[in-house]
């Protein structure tokens, strides 16, 4: 109706749009976006036991204990390793790291790799095996595991016997059961002095939680 009225008043048809929109085309305002609520922070403190056969790096009396549920075929687990190394470098004796096993069902080589890590740990070379397997995530079949064991100087006869006997299957299963009880779905999954931090989070997320806990201890 407005356009017809302008035409009757003599406004050229080519100028109708400009006349109707004031000073030419105006950009429509973006629709208001609903505000997203920040994800709720889980402040629950979970009891996560550390066993005598767990792989541990750091002092027992460290102020901060980071328990990691992880597995050797998971690319996200590999991605977070530099972050854990950075934490240990910055905080030194204030932090200890505990590695627990949660091989996922769709990673077929992960269960045996977990057993291999524990067999290496029994010979005080668990973290060396940990590092080699993460560097070679696509090569975790039995022959490769034996090759890595030789590279880090394990007693190969004992290593093979431990894998043949399934000596560490029960411990891997116990770690998986604990992960289930804690609802630690997926890997990696962390508990920092019992506080949950899920996924391959960036360094600042770890630092914020660690600093908060160290401050609370003062």
Characterization of this structure:
The chain has 218 residues and is of the alpha+beta class. It has nine helices and five strands. It has a five-stranded mixed sheet. A hairpin with a 2-residue loop joins strand 4 and strand 5. The mean pLDDT is 91.
What's the β-strand tally? Answer: 5
Total number of helices: 9
What helical percentage do the residues reach?
40-55%
Mean pLDDT: 91
Separation, N- and C-terminal Cα atoms:
75 Å
Strand content: 5-15%
Q: What string gives the helices and strands in order? A: HHEEHEHHHHHEEH
- Give the C-alpha Rg: 28 Å
Secondary-structure-based class equals alpha+beta
Shape: elongated
Strand order of the largest sheet: 1-3-2-4-5
- Sheet having the most strands: 5 strands, mixed
Uncertain spans: none
State the gist of this model.
45% of the residues lie in helices and 11% in strands.
Give me the secondary-structure topology:
Elements: H1 2-8, H2 16-20, E1 55-57, E2 64-70, H3 75-91, E3 95-101, H4 110-121, H5 126-135, H6 142-151, H7 156-165, H8 169-181, E4 189-192, E5 195-198, H9 203-217
Parallel strand pairs: 2-3
Antiparallel strand pairs: 1-3, 2-4, 4-5
Question: Could you name the key traits of this structure?
Answer:
218 residues, alpha+beta, 5-stranded mixed sheet, 9 helices, 5 strands, elongated
């Amino acid at each position: 109706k407005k356009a017809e009225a302008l035409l009757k008043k003599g406004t050229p048809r080519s100028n109708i749009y400009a006349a109707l929109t004031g000073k030419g085309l105006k950009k429509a305002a973006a629709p208001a976006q609903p505000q997203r609520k920040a994800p709720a922070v889980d402040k629950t403190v979970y009891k996560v036991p550390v066993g005598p056969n767990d792989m541990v790096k750091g002092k027992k009396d460290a102020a901060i204990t980071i328990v990691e549920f992880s597995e050797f075929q998971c690319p996200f687990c590999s991605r977070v390793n530099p972050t854990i190394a950075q934490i240990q470098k910055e905080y030194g004796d204030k932090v200890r790291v505990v590695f627990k096993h949660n091989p996922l069902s769709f990673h077929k080589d992960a269960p045996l790799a977990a057993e291999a890590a524990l067999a290496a740990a029994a010979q005080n070379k668990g973290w060396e095996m940990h590092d080699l397997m993460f560097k070679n995530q696509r090569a975790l079949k039995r022959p490769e595991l034996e090759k890595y064991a030789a590279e880090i100087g394990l007693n190969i006869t004992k290593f093979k016997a431990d894998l043949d006997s399934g000596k560490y299957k029960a411990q891997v299963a116990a770690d998986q059961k604990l992960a289930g009880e804690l609802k630690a779905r997926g890997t990696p999954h962390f508990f920092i002095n019992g506080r949950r931090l899920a996924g391959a989070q960036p360094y600042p997320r770890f630092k914020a939680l660690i600093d908060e806990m160290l401050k609370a201890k003062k």
